[in-house]
Design brief:
The chain is mainly alpha-helical. Helices cover 52% and strands 7% of the residues. The chain has 13 helices and four strands. The chain has a two-stranded parallel sheet. The longest helix has 18 residues, at 47-64. It is elongated and about 65 Å long. The two termini are 39 Å apart.
């Protein structure tokens, strides 16, 4: 249904979207040809505006093919570029109702580090603009997890009752201050050290509470990950050193 609607409504323009999103072939089929030339781009006044229009049409078609809401999640939005912000802004500014008078249900979830955003950041400016035009936005500040939440996380991860995982969860909370990412990395490290392992005898996960409690680990997850690099093979460390030269942009 989605494939038919995309081909019908976008026609030859679909090739431009396939070029931007190669995974669309999984929906459209391998017979869809990518746009390999610039003939259409020469006609367009602004190639980026043309692509933004096609993305909006793509969202419109997907929303028209299903009753469920369409959800877009982007992580690390503190690194979002101006072109992506312009595209996102245009999608979010689309009318609330489609051409067939159906209520649109499109939700955007963005995750970012608030300490890397300022008033001049493209994402901050976009959110302010959306609120000016009446688009509802909600800002959710994520803080460290409580002891009970940490225990729920450990219980779910190990598929054990919460009363069984509470001693381990208390240790992890004390060492990580409730940071979800830190807890995840620490549990991976415990598994590698055989301090957390599946037991055939008990038929469940078990752990060495005393040894875990006596472990000396850094106060921050960044330092913890940096220390773990020393356990990597020399050739891997060499490759990471070369890749780090490319920077974050």
């Amino acid at each position: 249904m989605v494939s038919t609607a995309l081909k019908r409504d976008l026609g030859d323009e679909i090739s431009s979207l396939v070029t931007a999103m190669p995974s669309l072939r999984g929906i459209l089929g391998n017979d869809c040809v990518c746009d390999q030339n610039d003939e259409n781009s020469d006609v367009a006044v602004d190639a980026q505006k043309r692509l933004r229009y096609l993305f909006c049409q793509f969202v419109e078609i997907i929303l028209g093919c299903q009753e469920e809401p369409l959800i877009l999640f982007l992580d690390d939005c503190q690194w979002i570029d101006a072109a992506s912000v312009a595209l996102l802004n245009q999608i979010l500014m689309m009318p609330n109702k489609s051409a067939c008078n159906k209520q649109r249900r499109f939700f955007f979830f963005g995750c970012c580090r608030d300490d890397e955003l300022n008033e001049e950041h493209p994402l901050t400016l976009m959110l302010s603009s959306l609120e000016t035009f009446g688009t509802k936005t909600t800002n959710i500040m994520l803080t460290s997890m409580s002891k009970e939440t940490v225990n729920e996380m450990v219980s779910t991860t190990l598929s054990l009752l919460s009363r069984l995982t509470r001693p381990l969860a208390d240790i992890l909370y004390h060492k990580t201050k409730g940071s979800p990412f830190f807890i995840k990395q620490l549990m991976i490290d415990l598994y590698k050290r055989r301090l957390l392992y599946p037991s055939l005898t008990h038929r469940r996960w078990v752990w060495e509470s005393d040894n875990i409690r006596d472990m000396e680990i850094p106060d921050s997850v960044a330092s913890f990950i940096m220390n773990s690099f020393h356990c990597l093979p020399p050739d891997v460390l060499s490759a990471l050193s070369v890749l780090s030269c490319f920077g974050a942009s």
